[in-house]
Amino acid sequence: MFALASDAGCAFSLRMPVDDTPLLSPTQRRLAGFALSTAAIVGVVAVIYLALLVTGRFVSQFSGVIWPLAVAGILALILRPLVALFERRLKLRRPVAVLALYGLFLVLAAGLLATFVPALVAQIVDFFAYLPTLWQNTLAWGEQHFPEWLAVVRRYLDNPAVKAAANSLMLQAQDLLAQITPSLKQAGAGLFGLFGFVASVAVVPIYLFFFLLTDEEPTKGLPAHLPFLKEAQRNDVVFLVREFLGILVAFFRGQLLIGLIMGTLLAIGFSVAGLRFGLALGLIIGLLNIVPYLGTILGLSVALPLALFQPDGGLWLVGVCLAVFVGVQAIEGWLLTPRIMGRQTGLHPVAIIFAVFFWGQALGGILGLMLAVPLTAFFVTAWRYVRRKYFATAGV
User: Fold this and answer.
1) Tell me: the pLDDT tens digits for 246-281?
2) Domain-embedded: residue 325
3) 191 pLDDT above the threshold of 50
4) How many independent structural domains does the chain possess?
5) How far apart are CA 151 and CA 156, in angstroms?
6) How far is CA 122 from CA 164, 279, 324, in A?
7) Can you give the pTM of this predicted structure?
8) Angstrom distances, CA of residue 372 to CA of 237, 356, 385
9) DSSP tag of 190
10) Least CB-packed of 78, 238, 324, 334 within 10 Å?
11) Looking at beta carbons, which pairs linking 168-171 to residues 24 or more positions away fall under 8 Å?
């Protein structure tokens, strides 16, 4: 009887149709894959955004502690070859070579202070004293050439709503100025006040001295701190860190040298052209080019109005100053950058401008602006390396 039942069950199971229809249709599978891919991309973007937000908040909160270390570290990377040269050529021990470098810097600084700094400081002080006169000259020039525009502006400024908005903006500007330049009591009490800033500047040479004392390659001991990674991954991390340090050194060493040369050329050109405060403006504009395009933008916005409205100026002086700008920029673009920096960053000018704004916002301030190009160049290099090594077989 059981045998018959077993045979009947087998026969029934054999007669049951097998459903081979897939759970999802091809269109549904594509939609599901697209949804999962989109969710993964959104998740990655959210993680990156959160990491940038936390990093930016951390850097902004502790910037008074971080930026002296960062400046000293960058200077140490730039000056290490010079210390090694002192050791090798002068047969000095490492501490003595570092002290000799400090002595050379003091001699050069004293020479600059005695030669250029008095004239530079005098021009800066005279420039700020000249600003009210410059404003009056600007208004007089506007009255002479565009009286109808000024009449329209005055008519709108007489509107109560516009007056209220202008007063509100003025109050906000005053509040912002009060936050940027706190009282002496706040400056003495706060870490980021005046005394905190002076202390941060003063500690940079101390950090730099101890950084220069070591003659080891900066990434030599890094693999020992990454035991949780496989050997191949450790090698990748060490390679990327070395690439980042190389980009950092090449960028700042090149930008400092290029900035000094550009500042000198602009100062000479402005002074020969007859622009007031040309020495100070040229040197400051050149040094500000450490942050890409910052010196050019600020320089054009200050030098051209000054050339137009100074007593012996005019459109001809504006043209001469523009010619000086264009000439120095051409020298920088065609001669200085290719010879000094080569293609260390390999970034398009649009990418550089975007990077400056992005990292300035992400890291909150001048540290982000200074590190914008090296950080972007490093991430581009890292992505190319990872894509070539890990995604080449996937056709990415």
Assistant:
1) 888 888 888 888 888 888 898 888 888 888 888 888
2) yes
3) no
4) 1
5) 9
6) 39, 10, 23
7) 0.65
8) 21, 5, 20
9) S
10) 334
11) none
